[in-house]
Amino acid sequence: MPARKLYFEAIRVGDELPTLAKAPVDRVQLSRYAGASGDFNPVHVDETYARGIGMPSVYAPGMLVMGFLGQLLSDWGRGAQLRRYGVKFIKIVWPADTVVCKGRVTDRYGEAGRYFADVELWAENQKGELVMKGQAVIQMFYSLEDETRQRSGQPPVQMTVARESLRTAPPPHAEPPRPAPAPAPPPKAAPAPASSSPAPAASGTKTAQKPPPSAKKSAVPANAAKKK
To answer: What residue numbers bound the domain in which 14 lies?
Structure first.
């Protein structure tokens, strides 16, 4: 019986990939990964060194968890071609942690006989904490007929499929929207300037009036007083 293959006509935006739960990470696996990858960073395999730099123990390389997500994608997308794959490291994976890999289709589109799907990927530990997230783009045949035609040298099935991006549902572990800032309070009214004119006197009270200024006395020459 031929292996199952994934065709473009069979997937829909929002489809979830089958969950992949890996066995708990142990130090033997870390050593084997170091030998297979050639990455002998002592922080991943040398307990004494890891504790000496302040870590509680050795921890898994991020590329190991990236490989787990790649396994999830390749198991689901059999027969598809990987066009782009990238991840972001979120949280350290320690020995005895169980990594659970998940994903879903977020977009599908095609034209000129080429058909693609965007897939969102993420990994959680046994506590449900996000440890890694990623994005991938795969290319596949439209259908079994399309594959048969192309493998026999005939032109591909020509279908134009507009983008069907997943817009309504937020991605898993998305940050909650930040609350809108509170509106600034209205500016306080400035106090009215004090009036320079005296306030009118209340009825029944007498106000003192200033006497009119006296006329200036004319100066008398000193020699005029002697002649008198």
So the answer is: 8-25+60-151
In angstroms and rounded to an integer, the radius of gyration of the C-alpha atoms of the chain is: 42
Q: What does the pLDDT look like over 48-58, one tens digit per residue?
A: 999 999 999 99
For the chain, what's the residue count? 228
Paired tokens of 51: 């504790």
Instruction: Tell me how many domains the chain contains.
Output: 1
Q: Whose structure tokens read 């170091």?
A: 34
Question: Whole-model pTM?
Answer: 0.70
Helix (H/G/I), strand (E/B), else coil: 126: coil
Taking alpha carbons only, the member of 22, 14, 42, 11 closest to residue 132 is 22
The CATH code of the domain that includes 78 is 3.10.129.10
The order of strands in the sheet holding 81-89 is 20-21, 100-111, 114-124, 130-140, 81-89
